[in-house]
Amino acid sequence: MIEENSCRPLPRAMSRSVKEQCGASLSALAMLTLGAATLALPWGVLILVPLLLLAAAWLGEEGQIDAFPRREDLLLVAAMVLQGLTWVGMLLVHGEGTAGLTEAWPFALVAVALLAFARARVPATWLWAGLALGSLAASAWALWQRVIEGTARANGHEPLHAILFGNLGLLMGLLCFAGLSWSFARRDRWAWSLLLIAGGLAGLLTSALSGSRGGWIGLPLAIWVLYRGHGRRLSLGWRVTLVAALMALLGSLYAMPQTGVATRVDNAVNSVRQYVAGDDEMTSVSARLEMWRGSSQLILERPLLGWGSSGYQAAMRERGAEGEQDPALGRFWHAHNDILDAWVKRGLPGLLALLALYFAPLWLFARGVGAGSGEQRALAVAGTLVPVAFIDFGLTYSFLAYPDHDPVGSLSPGALTLRLSDARHATGHGEM
Question: Where does the chain cross the membrane (predicted)?
Fold first, then answer.
């Protein structure tokens, strides 16, 4: 549970002060590790997050076990488990062996982490601090890569690349902005608000330095979610000021040639024009459009069970050999769209599992975006932004095609969602 009172009574064998220190230290370390290791540190470090949360949950108050887990907790865990089981099951259906076990284990691990989240008490202070500091560290890493190392696009640590790194950086920045309702409700509001604003701006910078255009498509919807949570409680003067500042920032990122934003946007617009005009030149945009067309036609042929991972690649190569599309597209192993990729490879079960992964957290958190206290709204806004962002990222790239590179399921809408009972309290509703 995300809360201000971060400590619970621990086993009787310890003194009260030791129990409090242990509980606070474990949960704080878990949140700082999550924030820092998502982008700034090698991903192997992320394995510590569920372990730390499990330790904090194990030291929890015995009486709490009667109310654990709640229906809200089980709903999100069920969506995560369903995704993993569908991934493995459809690989077996298509005769692709037990490789799915190695690809789906992060979904199981993040389900365990979510259950530990529901059992432990996590201080909100360290949650927001971890996100802000992690976003600032990621932007510093992106600047280092672009300025010092001279890379064309900031791409983070392997196995990340520019698209994954930039979009996750953007998400961390948006989550920092989500925390402003929490910071404004504190006595030391200015220090925390400035830190979160700096983290939010750093996320935008990380995205710009990565040159990842796909994440920008969903910015209007993300801004609308932030407005629903924060903006309607601001005066008209503050609203105008913030909108003007945002427009100036985005304009600066576009105008500065060092960011590469203008070049990437102009290339995308020109590529769309060429594709519509029938130009055969293959660009990143036209390649995506052709892959979407090819994947859609394959789905029509096998809508229920799909083609499987290897079957999809073989079918795309065959389409290229028959002249139905550019043969070069056969080298891509995913459809560059999460919905199409899930459906064409894992059939209707894969599509339904993905939609559950999107909409379970969205349904739980969106109800609390405009209600409750500042602390509750911050959690609800953050929990809503996660699936909104992943839906956006999945429009132009198969973001969830990389579970085997993800130690704690960070590339999933459930990974950064917060304590589910907080969303329930934020909505003002009781049990589901």
Answer: 43-61, 73-93, 99-118, 125-144, 164-183, 190-208, 214-229, 236-256, 347-366, 378-400
